[in-house]
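User: quick one, fold this
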Amino acid sequence: MAGTGDAPERVLMLAWPRGKWRVPRWESADMGEALKKALHDAVQSDIHLALVDKVESETDLPTLHALPENIRADFADEDAIVAAIRAYVKGTVFSGTRDPRTTILCCTDSRRDACCARHGFSTYKALVAVADPARFHVVQATHLGGCRFAASLVVMPQRQRYGRMSAGQAMAFLDALERGVVYLPAYKGRTDQPEPMQVAEIAAMGWAQDHGLDMDAVVLDAPALPHTVPEGTSLTLGAAIGSTRLAIRLSARRFLMQGNCSIVAKGGGVETMRWCLDAVQPEAAG
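Assistant:
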């Protein structure tokens, strides 16, 4: 899981009943062709388009919610929604109300994979049960990617990715977000950083936490990194936590990645090279 923390830079959430979600994740039953085309074009423009629902909410979700701008708005008809989406793709945020809360998208997309619903929905319900609605906006979302048969979440506008989080971790997760720190047990890594840097930073933060140091004080060295490597390649990265220096050893390993249950059933999958942690050791002073 470590090293897969890249989160979308721009997210557009469209409120749509979960029972109507389809594949691909930005299409749904009862959508007009113009809306489908606008959503498809938004995705092609590197905007993460998520259909969202919140069935237990006492009030309706806004029609559109743009992140990281945190602007939400309702629209009278699909033509107005299409116009707002196309304007957003071109860089103009639609008029609306600013929402200061942290948004947590939790994948519950059973159309993509039954595991998303099985694991994601229990985590979603646990989050909703304990989250302060004035501080957190928790929604069910269509497929976020990287679920790997476990709950997958994206936190915006912080652009943080989390995975393999159980319902029992909901309170600790929200407490970490309240304090402005990452929730390390489910954290996938810092967005927009190379995979080895993500893995090394998580390892250094874990070492700091285990040794009573401030994990937010971790500073990684920034060496030149290889773009392609053969399996078994070793890499050592350095990190500083105040006056403490760490040597973090990684190795490249090949894994068979099977993204959902249907791929497993068909015996499919893709061989993928991943950077894995081997050891974290403090360096001798001097």
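User: anything notable?
Assistant: The CA atoms of residues 12 and 49 lie 5 Å apart.
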